[in-house]
What does this fold into?
Amino acid sequence: QRFGVTASTINQVPVLLCGTGYTGEPGVEMIVPVDYACLVWQWVHQQGQPFGLALVGLAARDTLRLEAAYPLYGHELTEDITPLEAGLAWSLKLNKSADFIGKSALLEQQKQGLKRRLVCFEVLQKTIPRQHDALYDVDGNVCGVVASGGFSPTLNKPIATGWVMQPQLPAPGTSLWVDIRGQRVPAIVVKRPFYSSF
It folds into this structure.
């Protein structure tokens, strides 16, 4: 069940199965006692091989979460980036919830308007943008910076998120340029998320 958590056992080892789906794909995350982690991993791998289960590393998780436009701390979220700027206003109940740390600052930011916004964009050449690459508007002015970038195997194209330093969120179809290793490459703003399997 999506967003559900249940206790179970795998090969007689107690585990928690969590449908939090941080990769943006259907599936579960397993929380396993550390002393049994290797045993459970080997058993799952062995059982999954007849079904084509392949081992992948952390980079695969990062690719999947980027396709789903899920934020990653240090990229789309930091101590200096608010949930409003990161496009996570849906997670806040500013008018309904009781006071919480930072609520007054968020209400003030909402009132004053945002100075930067997170956008999703596709790169129109086969080159991959990386965090901190500069973004330019069509007139050649610096307008932002890349937050996360990578190649989407699902869409077969380079994709990225970026901070655009303007009060209005650029509409899908807006053209940008990305400075990738000293070369300006064309890009286009797209609707968030890039891909959804749900």
